């Protein structure tokens, strides 16, 4: 919800205008985010379990490569680059890399079938 509010602010859109455009109440909007968060958490658990069972992980080299790509994309945003050093941000990036590898592994298995 905070990300949405920041995004709206950056685009000079009031929260009330957004809700009107979306034809939702604040409660409906929040409920939608809750549903999405639950689905993402479930998918994260499934992906993590699958990655663990199949020894799929991202290496430090892959993390560094991804960090360098992000730094290049945000080279004019010092705050974004600083946040990349936070352990929780790097863990999130590692999870994303691992999830991508799981999806690639599954796609490859499906193509072979």
UniProtKB/TrEMBL annotation:
The keyword Iron does not apply. InterPro entries: Trigger_fac_C (IPR008880), Trigger_fac_C_sf (IPR037041), Trigger_fact/SurA_dom_sf (IPR027304). Gene3D superfamilies: Trigger factor, C-terminal domain. Transmembrane segments: none annotated. Residues 1-106 form the Trigger factor C-terminal domain. The keyword Protein biosynthesis does not apply. It comes from the Bacteria. GO terms for molecular function: peptidyl-prolyl cis-trans isomerase activity. Residues 56-83 form a coiled coil. GO terms for biological process: protein folding; protein transport. Keywords: Coiled coil, Isomerase, Rotamase. This is Trigger factor C-terminal domain-containing protein. It comes from Candidatus Magasanikbacteria bacterium RIFCSPHIGHO2_02_FULL_50_9b.
